[in-house]
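Appendix C: a fully annotated inverse folding record. The material below is reproduced so that readers can follow the format used throughout the book. The structure is listed first as tokens, followed by the designed sequence.
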């Protein structure tokens, strides 16, 4: 493959991408467009343009993707109940396909012929970036320096940065890497590589330690319309403002911390620590509203597809045809998921303490333990006997009662019609 003429570089200003701009300029001596996606990093975006251009970029693009990120990725994942290996709400996995999509848009705008990213050859992000890029631009050239250069560790990168005068946020005293967006903050590497080491408390950016959280619980109500959160405590909010508000509330009460060893797509186990306060609250509220608005069998069907939905998100197949079908299915069944959840936030926990909906399938007149006029309890006798039929036949078979030609004993007389 011939060398690239113009490269769009995924640029965060972190350790890897700070090095990559200089390395690409030295290696290819071509035009570089540093592309930064704003998915809610806040003050981390300050000064990036100056830094990028000082370290090799010819152009700098900052794309505000916050609205699209929450509306088209975070909320659909919540509606699809996407939680990887029981704990991880996949803030990074959800952001990567959006960033890669926006990079391809940038490729077309600048007439570039390649993209580059700072994901390592051991991780998931390389897969997420590249699967999206190839799905949306089949002829694109992808440059992944971690799979090419002779810099084999973060310490080597820090030495490279020192030799080239590149300012970096990572230090040898604080070597773990961090990824932040509106959905979460993730931490890995450094001291966290030993799964026995507890994460240092001063590492966390958005959540109070549950030990130091307020001693009184806080109650919050979330309105959902067609499965989409629309209001907090009766105040209608746009998606970004709503998630930001819940991040603040959850963070104050220590909600959403997760420390897991997860299975990466490439087959390596990896220790990750995450803060996802608002997302944790939204998942709990959504489950509460679903419990009274979704039909039992529809809910079971959806839940049977959750592992596949989650796997596709985690592994980077957001733009795969199977994922697009699952997203449409999720959209359709969520049309009845409209209601309000009341939640209690306390010392790191989120508890469902109430739920209501105008179109609720929960009917107190049917479910009451008191007297009612709508349900005939005697009907349950036949219901139970029909479901018990196969259990009885199974037991009689093991007792030798159902052998061909054997007389039907008195205890099986009531099953005579079925046996014959």
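Designed amino acids, in order:
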């Amino acid at each position: 493959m011939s060398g690239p003429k113009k490269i769009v570089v995924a640029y965060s200003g972190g350790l890897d991408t700070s090095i990559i701009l200089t390395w690409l300029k030295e290696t290819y001596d071509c035009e570089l467009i540093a592309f930064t996606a704003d998915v809610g990093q806040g003050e981390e975006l300050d000064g990036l343009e100056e830094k990028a251009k000082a370290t090799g970029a010819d152009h700098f693009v900052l794309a505000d993707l916050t609205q699209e990120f929450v509306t088209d990725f975070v909320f659909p994942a919540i509606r699809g109940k996407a939680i990887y290996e029981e704990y991880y709400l996949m803030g990074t996995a959800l952001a990567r396909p959006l960033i890669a999509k926006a990079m391809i848009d940038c490729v077309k705008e600048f007439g570039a012929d390649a993209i580059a990213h700072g994901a390592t050859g051991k991780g998931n992000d390389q897969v997420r970036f590249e699967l999206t890029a190839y799905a949306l631009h089949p002829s694109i050239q992808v440059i992944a320096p971690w799979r090419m250069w002779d810099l084999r560790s973060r310490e080597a990168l820090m030495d490279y940065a020192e030799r080239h005068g590149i300012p970096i946020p990572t230090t040898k005293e604080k070597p773990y890497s961090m990824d932040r967006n509106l959905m979460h903050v993730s931490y890995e590497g450094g001291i966290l590589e030993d799964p026995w080491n507890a994460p240092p408390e001063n590492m966390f950016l958005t959540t109070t330690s549950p030990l130091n959280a307020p001693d009184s619980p806080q109650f919050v109500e979330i309105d959902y319309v067609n499965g989409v959160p629309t209001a907090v405590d009766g105040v209608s909010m746009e998606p970004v403002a709503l998630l930001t508000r819940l991040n603040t509330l959850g963070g104050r009460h220590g909600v959403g911390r997760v420390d897991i060893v997860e299975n990466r797509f490439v087959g390596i186990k990896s220790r990750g620590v995450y803060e996802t306060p608002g997302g944790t609250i939204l998942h709990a509220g959504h489950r509460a509203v679903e419990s009274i608005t979704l039909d039992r069998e529809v809910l079971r069907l959806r839940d049977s597809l959750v592992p596949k939905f989650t796997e596709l998100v985690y592994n980077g197949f957001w733009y795969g045809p199977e994922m697009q079908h699952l997203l449409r299915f999720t959209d359709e069944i969520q049309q009845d998921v409209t209601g309000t959840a009341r939640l209690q936030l306390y010392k790191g926990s989120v508890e469902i303490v109430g739920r209501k909906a105008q179109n609720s399938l929960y009917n107190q007149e049917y479910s009451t333990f008191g007297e009612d006029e709508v349900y005939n309890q005697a009907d349950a006798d036949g219901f139970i006997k029909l479901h018990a039929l196969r259990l009885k036949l199974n037991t009689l078979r093991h007792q030798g009662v159902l052998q061909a030609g054997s007389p039907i004993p008195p205890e099986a007389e009531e099953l005579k019609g079925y046996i014959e």
